[in-house]
Design brief:
Blueprint lengths: L28 H10 L7 E4 L2 H11 L4 E5 L10 E2 L7 E4 L2 H11 L3 E3 L8 E2 L3 E5 L5 E10 L4 E7 L6 H7 L5 E4 L8 H10 L5 H19 L2 E11 L5 E3 L2 E5 L8 H4 L9 H8 L3 E4 L5 E2 L4 H13 L6 E4 L6 H13 L18 E2 L2
Antiparallel strand pairs: 1-7, 2-4, 2-7, 3-5, 5-6, 8-9, 8-11, 9-10, 11-12, 11-13, 14-16, 15-17
């Protein structure tokens, strides 16, 4: 792996966030799987249910040896989450369809709290009922935009099912990177080579190569900035399946991806971040009590670092951008002053104005 590759969009990884930033369009797991299905990518059979009775019927239709029931929210850590109904875990395995209905009854309409949700959790409105498949081996595969390469790259590892950053740090020799020519796309030899690097052999190598090419087709089709599959797994029956995927989209392509962007569930978005996005302001809420009002992303991050260095805690990341207009400045001030955590003083008389900092 030559040079740093950012696998996930986001700012300020060492500051505690109130919730994941929602500046990018994010889809529920089942929505991503539907897009993958439409591009011929192999995924497990699944249905979506909004009621417990629908979940029960879906489980019966699957007629699978084992069924997995997953609560659908835009947050990680669902397996270890807790519902306010008392149910523990947002992901459950069972061989009995009747149990699926019982579990769905304790999920739907209730709040699920994980390490990545707000304190009160997020209400579950949909569950995914899927066929549970055994995985004999897990790998990692992603296609993402890399500015240093002026285009998309493939990143893969035979070590899947875990945090890829940990793999890159502990065993960098197990991370493989391949630049994709935007005019040629993924060549057959590239796909086969990456499949071999992921540890697929014999007929499975060709299966994996086919999936890699289909994932690149999806990447282009939906104007993605990243398609991450973790794990890209191998089943005991000799099938290559994309078990879980995260797709990030280019917001600038919304005008030609209206069907995709219409899937966005705004009910889970942070209201402040939604309001900021209306004015093209880059806002991410943090857990501190010192509000930051800064022009430029680099200075904004440096400001947060300086605050943290001196024992303070930034309450937000707010970048006005380079071509900011008067109305945007006004709306940015409104966002900050509306938060009860922030007390605004006469900043003109303080040196801290140069840093764009409000002290509580």
């Amino acid at each position: 792996l030559t040079g740093p590759v950012s696998l996930r969009p986001g700012f300020l990884p060492h500051y505690r966030k109130k919730r994941d930033p929602r500046r990018w369009l994010n889809l529920q797991e089942y929505q991503s799987k539907k897009l993958m299905q439409e591009s011929g990518v192999a995924v497990q059979r699944f249905y979506v249910a909004d009621t417990a009775s629908e979940a029960l019927e879906a489980a019966k239709r699957l007629n699978a040896k084992e069924i997995v029931l997953k609560a659908q929210i835009l947050a990680g850590g669902r397996g270890k989450g807790v519902f306010d109904s008392g149910l523990k875990g947002g992901v459950h395995l069972t061989k009995d369809p009747a149990v699926v209905g019982e579990l769905a009854n304790k999920m739907l309409g209730f709040n699920l709290t994980t390490k990545q949700t707000p304190k009160d959790g997020v209400k579950v409105k949909t569950v995914m009922v899927a066929e549970a498949l055994d995985i004999s081996r897990e790998t990692y595969f992603a296609i993402l935009m890399d500015r240093s390469c002026n285009g998309p790259v493939m990143v893969g590892s035979p070590q899947g099912g875990m945090d890829i950053e940990e793999v890159a740090a502990s065993t960098p020799e197990l991370i493989f990177k391949e630049v994709i020519d935007i005019f040629q796309g993924v060549r057959d030899d590239q796909a086969l080579g990456m499949a071999a690097n992921l540890g697929f052999k014999g007929p499975l190598q060709r299966q994996a190569a086919d999936q890699i090419k289909r994932l690149y087709d999806l990447f282009l089709k939906v104007d993605a900035t990243q398609v991450e599959v973790n794990p890209l797994g191998e089943t005991p029956e000799g099938q290559v399946v994309c078990f879980d995927a995260k797709i990030n989209f280019d917001d600038n392509a919304e005008f030609r991806q209206k069907a995709v962007f219409a899937m966005d569930d705004m009910t889970e978005s942070d209201p402040t971040e939604m309001e900021a996005a209306k004015w093209d302001l880059k806002y991410i809420g943090l857990d501190g009590n010192i509000a930051c009002f800064v022009n430029g992303a680099g200075l904004a991050m440096a400001t947060c670092d300086i605050i943290d260095l001196h024992g303070g805690k930034p309450a937000n990341f707010l970048d006005l951008g380079g071509g900011v207009k008067e109305r945007q400045v006004y709306e940015a001030f409104k966002l900050l002053t509306a938060d009860p955590k922030h007390a605004c003083e006469n900043l003109a008389a303080r040196r801290e104005w140069q840093l764009g900092v409000f002290y509580k």
